[in-house]
Amino acid sequence: MNKDQNTTTYTRAANRLIQQKRFQEVILKCTRAVSLDPNNASAYTDWANALFGLKCLDKAAIKLTRALQVSPDFARAYYNLGLLNYYLGNYEGAQNNLKSADRLRPYPQLLLYWGMSLQNQGNYKEATIKWETMIANSPKNLLPYLYCCMTLNCQGKYSGARLLYEKVLEIQQPMQTKSQILEFLNKDLTRTQEKFDATQDHQQKEHYHKKITSLLFYLNKIFSEKSE
User: What pTM did the predictor assign?
Assistant: First the structure.
């Protein structure tokens, strides 16, 4: 088996292990892949995913930066670095990373996170544009509709939010999908609350508070509908 076949075997195994959340094993696979091929951007990116899963965010950023050093047009590394910067609260960095990823390869959830980073800065107009584009490309995905509702709520445009939420109800996604959406919104609520508690910037706190209020509102609505 040649070097390319070896590294492919390791990276494929790493991808399977990531799905199983066996992060320490992922790191072992990626370490082996990089020892065979120090320019393997995919291995560095998988390594970063494992570190992210272990909450070693600074180390994950180092691996993603390394992936882009060896492969400057590696879209997945830009996308993952964008998500990492979003979680860290570096919204300008997240937007720049996601813009680069979008130029190379538009990932399904890319515009969602791009809009979320803009929303957390209080840039509701630009956030809405991202989600409306996502809706046009994927009209049965509930999440961009819900985040558009949230931006309207944050701006006090309650009648517009109500009309848009009626469109959400018309989509009638399966119950499993609603459960996944509840999980996504709950995770976003937790992260937003953490950022609210950590920041000392009054304007940023206001943006986070509005988002928390809106997330709680829609979580309650969706949970109530799910229980009926």
Answer: 0.89
